[in-house]
Design a protein that fits this description.
Blueprint (H helix, E strand, L loop, with lengths): L1 E2 L8 E3 L5 E3 L2 E3 L12 H13 L4 E5 L6 H10 L8 E6 L1 E3 L5 E4 L3 H15 L4 E6 L8 H14 L2 E7 L3 H10 L2 E7 L10 H9 L2 E5 L30 H21 L3 H10 L5 E5 L4 H10 L2 E2 L2 H10 L12 H4 L8
Parallel strand pairs: 4-5, 4-13, 5-6, 6-9, 9-10, 10-11, 11-12, 12-13
Antiparallel strand pairs: 1-14, 2-3, 7-8
Helix pairs in contact: 1-2, 3-4, 4-5, 5-6, 7-8, 7-10, 8-9
Protein name: Aldo/keto reductase
Keywords: Oxidoreductase
Organism: Aeromicrobium fastidiosum
Length: 339
């Protein structure tokens, strides 16, 4: 393993139609939703610290806190060079005032409406990557991508992305308009992308933005079940429940032993492993504080040799992970999980 600390400049990857992109992106969901309360000032300070460190890819969505996250981004970017930031925005989830999930709408009219509201909340005249957060089963993907393509032509969107879709959908979408990247969960404990989906993306020149690289904190080395409240969606996720959690945390301890030998943290080992999967894969990590951000950025300069990769994978065998990555109802909405 080698660690390059000679420069604060992050190494780069090649992310589909976006081209050269810093090797780490920052996911902002946890600053607004699903993981319990977040500190607004610390969230903004973390975004600023990431930008100052060379991170350019910020991942948000209109569904994160029902607009809260986009307003947070607007505040964080005030006075900053907009062209130096790559805003990746997901859309389409229908929400009730009580936070309930009511379905999904990626029809052409809804797509343009979601975008109009996002532009207003973000305080910008364009988004760099626009993507439906899930496949809308009632709308042909060609219609959804066609609507975003119109927004590209009009200058409101720079690149089109997809999220959690399978190979057939990727091919159909790409036939309408070049797809920049696929955002999909990928980690030591979530490896379903390997094989068909990843092969298809590479064949078509589509980059991968990998989220969930720490499996929502499960393999971060910091997870504390006693701090997971009822408003934290992990408490309703199979991997974080009962015997499943015990079995998974045992894997984390095995990973910790390997990480200690490498002189890195558990999180850094897990992030570096995802980063090692290819020059076309950019991990997007949901650091909510400057402390966690510093740890995350440290992983960007960790280079693992083949022996070290084997040791990491042996510590966390994919077939020994207990429980699915989402609850059953959510798993059913993932086109990427359909055989």
């Amino acid at each position: 393993m080698t660690t390059d600390n000679s420069s604060t400049t992050l190494p780069t990857k090649s992310l589909g139609t976006l081209g050269a992109t810093p090797a780490i992106g920052l996911g902002l969901m946890g600053m607004s939703a699903l993981y319990g309360p977040a500190d607004r000032d610390e969230s903004i300070a973390t975004i600023h610290a990431a930008l100052d460190a060379g991170v350019t890819l910020l991942d948000t969505g209109d569904l994160y806190g029902m607009g809260h996250n986009e307003l947070l981004v607007q505040e964080a970017l005030r006075g900053r060079d907009r062209e130096a930031v790559t805003l990746s925005v997901k859309y389409g989830a229908l929400r009730g005032p009580d936070g309930s999930w009511l379905g999904f709408d990626a029809s052409p009219a809804a797509t343009k409406t979601w975008l109009a509201y996002s532009l207003q909340r973000l305080g910008t005249d364009h988004v760099d990557i626009y993507r439906p957060a899930r496949l809308d089963p009632s709308v042909p993907i060609e219609d959804t991508v066609g609507a975003i393509a119109e927004m590209v032509e009009a200058g409101y969107v720079r690149h089109i992305g997809l999220s959690e879709v399978g190979s057939e959908t990727i091919r159909r979408a790409h036939a309408v308009h070049p797809i920049g990247d696929l955002q999909i969960e990928y980690s030591l404990v979530s490896r379903g992308i390997e094989g068909d989906i990843l092969d298809t993306c590479r064949e078509l020149g589509i980059g991968i933005t990998a989220y969930g690289v720490l499996s929502r904190g499960l393999i971060s080395g910091h997870y504390d079940a006693s701090r997971t409240g009822a408003d934290d969606f992990r408490s309703h996720t199979p991997r974080f429940q009962g015997d499943n959690l015990d079995r998974n945390l045992a894997l984390v301890e095995a990973l910790r032993a390997v990480a200690d030998e490498l002189g890195v943290t558990v999180a850094q080992a897990a992030i570096a492993w995802v980063g090692s999967r290819g020059d076309d894969i950019v991990p997007v990590v949901g650091a909510r504080t400057r402390e966690r951000l510093t740890e995350t950025l440290g992983a960007a300069t960790v280079t693992l040799d083949e022996q070290q990769l084997v040791a990491i994978e042996a510590a966390v065998p994919a077939d020994e992970v207990a429980g699915t990555r989402y609850a059953e109802a959510q798993m059913a909405t993932l086109d990427s999980e359909r055989l």
